[in-house]
Amino acid sequence: MRKLLLMTLLLTFTMTAAGQESCELEDVKIGFQAKTCAFQDYSITLNGVAATGFGNGCISFAEFPNLTNNAWTRLKLNKTYTVSAGQALCITHINFDVPEDYVMYIDGVESKTIFKTNGGQIFSGDGSWSVVVRKKCACGKDEPGAAAPELGSVAWSTSLGKLRDGRSAERINLSE
Length: 176
Prior knowledge:
176 residues; 1 helix; single chain; 2 domains
């Protein structure tokens, strides 16, 4: 009985890992646009795609906001990309268009927006951020030990909770 349980667990982890590998091959169309106060012409880049804008000498973010073009790129799930913004940006506000069934993490925190400045000072809006797109998990509450019984011969799953950065620690599934 113990060997059967161990083999079932190993098979479950193998099947879960195989399912995740195919998920990682999937890519998602992501849009982005920035509103800035820029000293000079600039670009915001993600995965080799640039959204560009012109500089206005950092006159006023409120009165003369500078919008970039809407840029679109395709990102692979669970792969880390870098968003870069600069040169000579006083205020940077980047919004991402993420499809409904997906979630974006910016520097490990779930978000669709980057906002950076230090009181509007020149170069304080420049920067680089790590972004990752993941599928939304329909895993319930993700409380440790939260079980999800299903009909069938043997079907059992439990959540491992959440990681400190808010991501799911995934689930353990047993099924026959």
